[in-house]
Amino acid sequence: MFGVTFDDPYLLLLLLLLIPTAVWIFHRRRRPGTIRYSDVSAMRALKRPLLSRLFRLPDVLRLCGLAVLIVAAARPQTADYEVLTGKGVDIVLALDMSGSMNAVDMPEDQLAAVVNNGETPKNRFEIARDTIEAFVHNRTQDRVGLVVFGQQAFLKFPLTLDYGRILRILRGLVLDNAERDGRSDTCTNQCTISGAGTAIGDALARSYQRLRDSKAKSKVIVLITDGTNEGGNIQPNTIVDYIAQRPSEEQVRIYTFLVGDDKNTFLPTRTVFGDLTYQRAARPFPTNPELLQEIADKTGGKYFESYNEEKFREDFQKLEQTVFQTTVRNQQKDIFMGFVWVGACILLFETLLRTSVFRKFP
Questions:
Q1: Up-side HSE of residue 336: CA atoms within 13 Å toward CB?
Q2: Which residues contact 317 (CB under 8 A, 6 or more apart)?
Q3: How far apart are CA 293 and CA 273, in angstroms?
């Protein structure tokens, strides 16, 4: 019985007593008839009626009824629970779109194999965006918003349940390729935001601004970055301390992700012929894991260090399972009365058969 437990499972041992009882019933000698005949050969030739073939039915019913009542005495129960997935959570995703998010993190031989196959390896930004898209697909009742940041921070969409619109906007984000046309500081690929900076403090401030007046029971910021705070007008510690000191109904948990690997980091470059190639980064990009850890600790969140695509997806899945999925388990639900009724009905039916169609006359 899948999903059923017993409050007094040891009582089920009484079922073993039914085995010798059944053996005794089916092998006991029948009582001799009241009237004796000297020759019964003619009677043996007669076809046995159906009732005579079923003369053991009352015994079978009695054993079944007793077995069901023993199960009822052991108090079968089912777990009365429900799984709530992200119910009532408001989430703002703060996504780093600085130039360093163009970096590709994978061993050199693996990168060469991907390029030789005519494929384009995913950079940090593309991995983050794809993971966020999968995360949005799994939402059902959570409002989601998005803040992107580089040199500055901008709100791309406010908290909404329109997941289709969110996915379209995510797919339309363009990362700064760090190429300029020479006449202005505008990126040549019509990027969404300038990547000449990493304004973490501004991103947190804009994210909190969208959550401050939220009536949701749980409010969360998910910060995804590969660097340290560079640029912007607000220091991360300033806004984090402010959030941590707010009343409980205004507090927000911040979960931070540091993406990227400082050992196997390659940057896309163009040859003199305009071909795309990848070169190992001359020096590691500046990071500040201590800052991200502090942000998470002060706000009741958690810090994740995701050094490659597989680790980032695993960490994001952990976030989804621990933060946005809650299993609420209530008290056990007794179902023994159903067994009592079934057992009683079987025994009642057995009694009716013994006193009617299977009634014995001395």
A1: 17
A2: none
A3: 44
Judge whether 130 and 171 are in contact, CB under 8 Å: no
| Span(s) in the chain for CATH 3.40.50.410 | 87-323
DSSP 300: T
Distance CA 256, CA 238 (A): 16
- The token duo for 286 is 């500046």
Q: What type of residue is 331?
A: Q
3-state secondary structure of 328: strand
Helices (H), the chain: 18-27, 41-44, 50-53, 57-73, 108-116, 124-137, 163-171, 200-211, 236-244, 289-299, 309-323, 336-354
Convert the pLDDT of each residue in 239-284 to its tens digit. 999 999 998 888 899 999 999 887 889 998 888 777 888 998 888 7
Torsion of CA 43, 48, 49, 52, to 10 degrees: 100
CATH number belonging to the domain at 87-323, selected among 3.55.40.10, 3.40.50.12780, 1.10.275.10, 3.40.50.410: 3.40.50.410
* Cα(49)–Cα(175) distance, integer angstroms: 88
Where the chain has pLDDT below 70, the residues are 1-2, 28-55, 79-87, 182, 324-332, 358-362
120 within 8 A of 104, measured Cβ to Cβ? no
pLDDT in tens, 151-172: 999 999 999 999 999 999 999 9
User: Tell me, what's the pLDDT at 1?
Assistant: 43
Report the candidate in 104, 106, 94, 188 with the shortest Cα–Cα distance to residue 132: 94
Is-contact 67 15, C-beta < 8 A?
A: yes
Contact in structure between 229 and 127 (CB atoms under 8 Å) = no
Closest to 173 measured CA to CA, from 225, 128, 137: 128
